[in-house]
Structure prediction request, 505 residues.
Amino acid sequence: MWTAIRGNVYDIEGWVERHPGGDVIRVAAGRDATWLFESYHGKHVENVLEQLYVGKLVDGNDGIEQVEKRTEKDEKMDHVERSSTPTVRKRKNQEHKRMDEPAGREELEGTKRSTENRSDDDPWESHEPQDVLRMMEEDLEPVATYKTGPFYDELKRRVNKEMRQKGVNLRTSTSMYVKSALILTSCVITWWNAFFSPYQALRMVCAALLGFCRAQVGVSIQHDANHGAYSKNKLASTIAGASLDFVGASSFMWKQQHVVGHHAYTNVDGMDPDIRVGEKDVRRVTQYQPWHPHHALQHLYLGWLYSLLAIKSFAVDDFQALHTGRIGNVRINRMTRIEMGIFWAGKLFYFCCVYMVPCLLSTSGWMELILLWSMNEAVAGWTLAFLFQVAHVVGEVDFIKADEKTGRVDCEWAIAQLETTADFSHGSSFWLHVSGGLNHQVVHHLFPGICHTHYPKIAPILKQLCLEKGVKYRVFPSFWSALQAHFRYMKHVGSVKVPSLATVG
Prediction:
């Protein structure tokens, strides 16, 4: 299992089982994972990278980097140039270049295990590095490269220093486990009363609350778990991560879209799958996307269409991604047997519990059942859509267009997260828990491996550094003001009557 970080290629297969963050590391397979790595790790893990080193990507004129043979000069990781992520770009009909095999690394435990214990579950596992490079060239997603600078390193240093002094374990939280128990218990109680209570009014209320509780699983439990920010126990993290599957969506697909695409390339047009649109989509998110006359009304109808988000994910999006192997420009890694089992078990479980069992056992009539189902799905969709849209799709943040030839973005990655993300309701414990920490979305993007209950401890450190460096930190005073900003922006970007460059020629 191979990945690229800062222009170097690493064999991570032998490290997967020992990875402290669990199997979230699998999303890095077969792709450039520089900014995923940077956002989850500090400098103390450099020695681990050294043990997994295979070769070095070297810029070439043929559109895909070659790998140099490891030399004695490369024995220390201090030589790694961090000027940018390597721009690995797909070119058709090019002769495949050879990636030299590891030199003198087989004695290392991690590398040795990776060559002895291959499986057929992952297409990026291979005895021959050149085969992996060939596959990366044939099925490569676009890659953006950012400048590097001192801002992110300084932020990490300050956060780590203060949290160590306070004795805070940033990856886990007892309150998170209590919160998880309350959410899951609420899911069961609201499900039962929504379909089997003898009181019609209670059924209606609980159907709506079931949708809200499902959304809470999405923004809190699975969100932390699938970012590796839930527990040091891998089984507990896996179970918590799979909770999303059992309320309708797929945790596997979520990791591919959210962790791989959205977090690495936030609001980068053509690379962030969260802002992708079709040729004649119902919405227009950025000025770089095609404009059509119906977009002038999108601020009026999108609010209603957001209610379909949850059911669309359950019944359409996950299966479409499974069929096409992609979510936007993000290539979907092949599922392992366990991941495939969780995917289908979750779909079957949710369908049976929410649709089949009520059909067979509920005393409600068909019209009432349809209403109950609609309320459940609509509230879940609205909750999820509104909480995520206010962070990135507002006029107060930036949308980035990478250079079409080089993929370069003219700013630091950490600065880009601040420019493309907005927070809301700082100081509110209510919104911290209801949003799963998304009211501190900037902190989440810079430290995705930290449990969301700790975000308020980090926000003041980030704010102080931003003041010192002259970097803008966008915070709406309330959720309502953030939501208004979202629809105000959708009206603005939808009312532009001049077609975008994407529709010219």
